Amino acid sequence: MTTRDHTVDALRGLAIAGVVLGHWLVSAVVSDPYQPTALHGESPLAHTPEFAPVTWFLQTLGPFFFAAGYAAASRAWHGKSLRRGRLLGPVLALAAVWLPATLLLAAVESPASTRDLVRALVTQPLWFLLVYLVLVALTPVLRPLVVRCGPWVAVVPVALVGVVDLIRLHGLPNWLGVVAAPVAWAVPYLLGLALAEERLHRRAGAVLLSLGVLAGAALLWAARYPASAVGVPGDRWSNLAPPSLFTLALAAAQVGVFLLLRPWLARVLRHRAVWAPISALNRHAMAVYCWHQTALLLVTFTGLLTGRLPGLLDEPTGDWPLHRLYWLPVFALVLAALTWLQASCTPGRRSPTT
């Protein structure tokens, strides 16, 4: 029988933090020097491809879905259902803010590129919620398979993702990309179920890490997969839309590292100073995820008052990555304020969700 595991909570918190930092670092908002209010998005990775390996550490959706699988099994063991209000509350609050805001932007005739950018930054990160809900709905089917076959059941979606990658070479239909996303993220989700059902042991960490590293290297150098774990304009395709075999190799390596470090992590988390911030992040994980791009936009819009500030509104070339680091604490402070407002308006906040 599975019980609450603080190491999985820590992994979930790390995954959320990685996604947030990753988005802040690759979401360059550029102001037109001749029309400052005309904003458009660019990827710094298109100008500095040598930073692609950084995305291997900040693209942490694999660990997130792994933790989600463990949590789903935990709820099943204890007869609990998914608390959808905790998921949908921040989404509804986000909609309540940005639907009128986008109408206001249209009413004041803001440039179309600015409205498109706002729409993309606010809504695109929420795709994971739909994938998550699909996998949770399928848990009653997936869990018995894991109990019977163990982590080997994940081989099936891996093979299906391989087929999708072959189709990419000739053009991937949009509908197939939508279907392929939950299939791909089912791989770490199934591994999380396996951990909760005691079918995935620490020694599997070395296997997953080795396979992930070797497969990832082979895909990069032999199969010429894009090096970035996120989409970059000009690449052959995006490893994330839908997730490719390289993304699954990365997820396997990340989960493998977690399994190997889990005993050490359990000891470290006994210290209150370490556990307290992780617990807080887990309590507000959904709000942090929903509002993090809003924090970026609020700081960016404020920056328009003083011109094209380095690392905020200029082209993501040259020293832009270094300048961007200076803005991360500002984004974090604004996000903390937005999260506090969300919590203040949400009654009955209690322990972090499993």
From TrEMBL:
<feature type="domain" description="Acyltransferase 3">
    <location>
        <begin position="7"/>
        <end position="338"/>
    </location>
</feature>
<keyword id="KW-0812">Transmembrane</keyword>
<feature type="transmembrane region" description="Helical">
    <location>
        <begin position="126"/>
        <end position="142"/>
    </location>
</feature>
<feature type="transmembrane region" description="Helical">
    <location>
        <begin position="51"/>
        <end position="73"/>
    </location>
</feature>
<feature type="transmembrane region" description="Helical">
    <location>
        <begin position="12"/>
        <end position="31"/>
    </location>
</feature>
<dbReference type="InterPro" id="IPR002656">
    <property type="entry name" value="Acyl_transf_3_dom"/>
</dbReference>
<feature type="transmembrane region" description="Helical">
    <location>
        <begin position="175"/>
        <end position="195"/>
    </location>
</feature>
<dbReference type="Pfam" id="PF01757">
    <property type="entry name" value="Acyl_transf_3"/>
</dbReference>
<feature type="transmembrane region" description="Helical">
    <location>
        <begin position="85"/>
        <end position="106"/>
    </location>
</feature>
<keyword id="KW-0472">Membrane</keyword>
<feature type="transmembrane region" description="Helical">
    <location>
        <begin position="149"/>
        <end position="169"/>
    </location>
</feature>
<keyword id="KW-1133">Transmembrane helix</keyword>
<feature type="transmembrane region" description="Helical">
    <location>
        <begin position="286"/>
        <end position="305"/>
    </location>
</feature>
<feature type="transmembrane region" description="Helical">
    <location>
        <begin position="325"/>
        <end position="343"/>
    </location>
</feature>
<protein>
    <submittedName>
        <fullName>Surface polysaccharide O-acyltransferase-like enzyme</fullName>
    </submittedName>
</protein>
<feature type="transmembrane region" description="Helical">
    <location>
        <begin position="207"/>
        <end position="225"/>
    </location>
</feature>
<feature type="transmembrane region" description="Helical">
    <location>
        <begin position="245"/>
        <end position="265"/>
    </location>
</feature>
